[in-house]
């Protein structure tokens, strides 16, 4: 029996089947698709093996940095890492991560053009802001925001990928951007002031995200269908002092604008806030990456079922049922003994919500989801064999 503090070694092989041996390649190495035959799941394996021999040590260090960063992240808009394999003596490493069935952001926007599904543009933007707000909240900057590093899966969920150039930062830290020379910024409509100063902060991530989204919408003729143009312009101001202080402030600006387009009264806004605050107060933590119900039809159905099982009560009896009208993934919640929610709050919200136009219903639901996205995910220790 091993004593506490002793190393535990595993020598058992773990075999995978090669499905696609050339998903992509570059100066860092290559990416392939593997299948785990036991659980019948596909994974992406990213191999760190630089083309130039002199770069091996530096790129291996980058591999270790990506592992440290990605293991901290647990959010539905950020790609998940499942395992890693390090070969220190050869300065080579592998990261096993979530396989995304979907399209790159430019290709997905092309589909939006073809189908005329213009409402999806705002939805993509809101998800991107939620994802980067979470990344920022974890003290991380991405530093490589470009077309190929934002995917959209087959369910329309945005996935931010490739943290090979990412790094952690302190809240007020301005890091020297030593990676400027290897990050290709050609083809951009404009560059931020800090690019020329050789510095990088979370607000630089904000600039590059806004510049990318604006450029893609312009190229595909979609700018007229986008609701948050004033917010986007502020995000990509050349001087970072003119941008939003943080992604949280971008979220708040989106929420404010959404409500202004609804043209609701102060009484209506109170109905919304009582309901959204009730859900927020009940939800303690997500136990895995946050997952939400984006369907307004499903939301209405769950609301109706909630009221059915509480129709003779003054207070909601099981707060988890209230949360489940919006949240699809696992979570911890505060019981009705701790947080008491009046049934009238849900009834009044439903009466106000149901007559709204379809677009307005989506805005209301997205606002609630945006609020709940700020609730933390429970941190898990790495799984041990015993």
Mean pLDDT: 83
Q: What structural category do the secondary elements indicate?
A: alpha+beta
Distance between the termini: 11 Å
Low confidence ranges = 169-182
SSE run: EEEHEEEHHEEEEEHEHHHHEHHEHH
Strand order of the largest sheet: 1-2-3-5-4
Mass-distribution shape: globular
Give an overview in words.
By secondary structure, the protein is α+β, with helices and mostly antiparallel strands. It folds into three domains: 17-98, 2-Layer Sandwich (Phosphorylase Kinase, domain 1), CATH 3.30.200.20; 102-257, Transferase(Phosphotransferase) domain 1 (Transferase(Phosphotransferase), domain 1), CATH 1.10.510; 263-372, no CATH class. 39% of the residues lie in helices and 17% in strands. The chain contains twelve helices and 14 strands. The strands form five sheets. Strands 1-2-3-5-4 form a five-stranded antiparallel β-sheet, covered by helices on one side. A hairpin with a 4-residue loop joins strand 2 (29-36) and strand 3 (41-48). Helix 3 packs antiparallel against helix 7 and helix 8 packs across helix 12. The longest helix is centred in the first third of the chain and has 19 residues, at 119-137. The chain is globular and about 70 Å long. The termini are close together. The model is unreliable at 169-182 (pLDDT under 50).
